[in-house]
């Protein structure tokens, strides 16, 4: 049974046809005895690759292919690395379904284009980031505001070589949700030092990323 409804598939195909430029590789990590959402995540990634010839899917075993997981910086599963002309540091942990399906679609589009629609003001802020920044955006599949925060985080990663951005389903990784005291979503953690809750506008998000870089 398909995870992506037929009517949604046609809409996604149209969007990809209009927006995709360079090829995108979806690198998914699971394991032999799959976690609760691993099989569905694998199926979803493979289905996404059937919607356009510009997307390919690669599936690896988190344990057996430990070197590959290390290469992509994957430390939990299910995980999807969205790779374009280069690895921009765009990651999704947990099944990107419900509202988060849009996060996956936007990540694919942004990585394929290799550029973003971020404002000049935001890009100017990013120029000042000269230390590594790790953004974690905690979401849930039922949160309508989460894809906005997730998309901005991924765009910041595409625009800046100093930034990598993880979108994490807090319900699939309760230990992390507890560690970071995730009560409301989207919750954003930057370099373990700076945090905020809510879908901030992009330049304010970038300011917090810059603050996180300085506090490293």
Q: How would you describe this protein?
A:
With 216 residues, this protein is of the alpha/beta class. It folds into two domains: 83 residues, 3-Layer(aba) Sandwich (Glutaredoxin); 95 residues, Glutaredoxin (3-Layer(aba) Sandwich). The protein is 40% helix and 21% strand. The chain is built from eight helices and eight strands. An eight-stranded mixed β-sheet has the order 2-1-3-4-6-5-7-8. Helix 4 runs parallel beside helix 6 and helix 5 runs parallel beside helix 8. The chain is globular.
Please tell me the total number of domains. Answer: 2
**Assembly form of the protein:** single chain
Instruction: Give the name of the CATH architecture of the largest domain.
Output: 3-Layer(aba) Sandwich
Low-confidence stretches: none
How are helices and strands ordered from N to C?
HEHEHEEHHEHEHEEH
What would you report as the Rg, rounded to the nearest angstrom?
Answer: 16 Å
Largest sheet: 8 strands, mixed
What proportion of the residues is helical, as a percent range? 40-55%
What is the distance, rounded to the nearest whole angstrom, between the alpha carbons of the first and last residues?
46 Å
Say how many strands there are.
8
CATH superfamily of the largest domain: Glutaredoxin
CATH level 1 name of the largest domain: Alpha Beta
Which fold name fills CATH's third level, the topology of the largest domain?
Glutaredoxin
What structural class do you assign from the helix and strand content? alpha/beta
Tell me the number of helical segments per DSSP (H or I, 4 or more residues long): 8
Query: What is the 3D shape?
Result: globular
Strand-residue proportion: 15-25%
Strand arrangement, major sheet:
2-1-3-4-6-5-7-8
The overall pLDDT, averaged over residues, is 96
């Amino acid at each position: 049974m398909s995870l992506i409804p037929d009517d949604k598939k046609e809409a996604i195909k149209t969007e990809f046809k209009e927006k995709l430029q360079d090829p995108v590789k979806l690198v998914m990590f699971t394991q032999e005895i799959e976690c609760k959402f691993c099989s569905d995540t694998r199926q979803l990634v493979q289905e996404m690759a059937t919607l356009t010839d510009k997307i390919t899917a690669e599936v690896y075993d988190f344990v057996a292919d430990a070197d590959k997981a290390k290469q992509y910086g994957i430390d939990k599963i299910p995980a999807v690395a969205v790779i374009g002309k280069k690895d921009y540091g765009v990651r999704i942990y947990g099944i990107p379904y419900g509202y988060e399906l849009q996060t996956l679609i936007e990540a694919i589009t942004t990585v394929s284009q290799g550029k973003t629609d971020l404002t000049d003001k935001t890009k100017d802020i990013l120029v000042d980031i000269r230390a590594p920044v790790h953004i974690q955006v905690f979401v849930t599949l039922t949160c309508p505001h989460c894809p906005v925060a997730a998309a901005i985080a991924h765009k910041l990663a595409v625009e800046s070589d100093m930034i990598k951005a993880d979108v994490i389903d807090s319900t699939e990784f309760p230990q992390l949700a507890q560690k970071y005291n995730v009560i409301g979503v989207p919750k954003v953690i930057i370099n373990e030092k700076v945090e905020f809750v809510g879908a901030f506008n992009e330049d304010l998000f970038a300011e917090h990323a810059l603050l996180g870089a300085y506090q490293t």
